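Help!! Second protein's tokens look totally different from the first
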Amino acid sequence: MKKRCGRCFPFSSRISNISAIHFDKIMSSIKKILIVDDDDALRGSLVEQLQLHESFSCLAVASAAAGLEHARSSHVDLVLLDVGLPDMDGREACRLMRKAGVKVPIIMLTGADTDSDTILGLDAGANDYVTKPFRFGVLLARIRAHLRSHENSDDAVFKIGPYSFRPGAKMLLDTEEKKIRLTEKDLAVVPTRSIPECLSALVAFDPDSEMDQNRAQMSEAIEGVRSGAVTRAVRDSKYKGSKIREGDFIGLFKGSIVTAGTELPEVTLKLVERMAEKGADVVTLIRGEAVAEDAGSDIESRLREIYGGDLEVLIGNQPLYHYLVGIE
């Protein structure tokens, strides 16, 4: 077979030859944000806004006790922690998280904006202190900045499938916390913003090529991919003047809602149509765990009538997103 580095259409044939690729491992690159806030509207809004970006998943709770439990027992990459919680001051909750060994960035959210409040929050172990009301874009920039900083610190822990990697200690641990020996090798990081981009980069990888050549052709492959997703709305909102109810399906493209409705097939078809307006050599559909077999087959059959052999369907079983869509 002729290699087509930089293209995303040979997914099924090329991936079948790369035994190390598993969708659960790819999904582990998504950053999990723990949101601890008793304001239902704000909590729901943060979840919805963050999940518009495929690089985040959210775990949202309304009390300090629930936040402490999840921070200690679950792998999270960052915590958004309200100060005025009903069962405990958020600064005390922050101290308890640090005492329990939680080393991920903690951003405190509060309506108090005096210098003394900021100092108390930072002294409690928080990495940042954001006053309400805030612009989501500013909060998002701070989240990304703290995640980047943490990834380069000795405290960083990356989940890679069943393994935990601590780059500061050059240590890889299995599920039983047993060390796995690492060898010294040069490596290059090729950043991606979505699962379709990640898959396209993996397909472009050539084990017989030099590192710099692989990095160039993987980056080239990413540039030609348009990414979208179908998920459910987490709260009532509006789209082009029409109401979106909590639980409705929404189609996301370029970080915005481009279609919404109560029926998964119609929302998925409209999303793909919108994404393909500038042409589509290949449409890649990655089915999530929430899509039943019969419903998925119906949607995929209808898309195959339109795109024929240019449609690739993969079973990703990813959470949150009913479908991830990649178009080249």
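Here's the second one for comparison:
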Amino acid sequence: MAATACGTGSGPGGRADGRTERVTSLTALDYYTDTTEHAHWGELLTGCGEKAGVAVEHRSVPAPSLVPTALRQASAGTLPDLLMLDNPDLQQFARSGVLAPLRAYGVRTDGFGAGILSAGTYRGEVYGLAPTVNTLALFYDKRALAEAGVPVPRTWDELRKAARATTRPGRYGLAVDADASFEATFQFLPFLWSNGGDERRLDDPRAVEALGLWTGLVRDGSVSRSVLTWNQADVHEQFLGGRAAMMVNGPWRIPALDAAEDLDWGVVPLPVPRAGDALVTPLGGEVWTVPRNDSEARRRKAAEVLACLNGPASMLALADWHHTVPSRPDVAGRY
């Protein structure tokens, strides 16, 4: 998907030959291929581009393709002026030296939550900022659970019972993302961590028990074997289409769920192993970065746009659109 944000004016900057370089356009790459998300980000990039006096050419590629695409571009020296990365991927790019430190270009990083800021930091330098953050929850079909006579699950045992009770021909009890991708890792981590497991010790009994929860649900038919090929968008479609009574997913799905006329849905924290256990979930969210290129002027303009994307107005707009949480506590308090 691609869209061009129309900007006005131009920006001066230095060139290696001493002449003034005028920057009138920038490029941006992300993985927001969903029509609504792409439009939302296009709107923000348009507005921030106009404030910086540039047009922003906005391109989105499928999530699994983003990192391979960016790595090829880094090798060829053709990275965009603005690159969005899922926060776990930032350190790989920062370590390779292809990202510019944001503070060097006047981007303010004060006021962000400490954990959120650390996600965009490598060896003490901030290379990426996330306007908002998110995590995962359990979405459920109120009618399906009521008809099965089961409560909304709060523990793993209750989840097993509810998934089994709501499974029927044409509908599974639960949908999760279990494909070979970062999205599946993101979905499994809350179950692993909440059980005291560690992703560096997958042979630990607590990790084995967490995986056993998922595999057991597949074996008893409460979860489709097709989850091995589903991403989070597929999980959402299963739930939206009535083919799953519950799903693990994020708040960015809420606008589409609200628009579904025949679905009476609810959402609760993910179930924990045992009553009273603490729920531990990962911090989700994408960071925007400024790749290094041979134009200082382009980097400075890109930094202006990035700062705008991470400003209070943008944070609040994204939070309202996607039901995410602004990355600055003072802004989150106004949401």
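Reply: Different proteins will give different token patterns, so don't panic. The first helix runs from residue 35 to 52.
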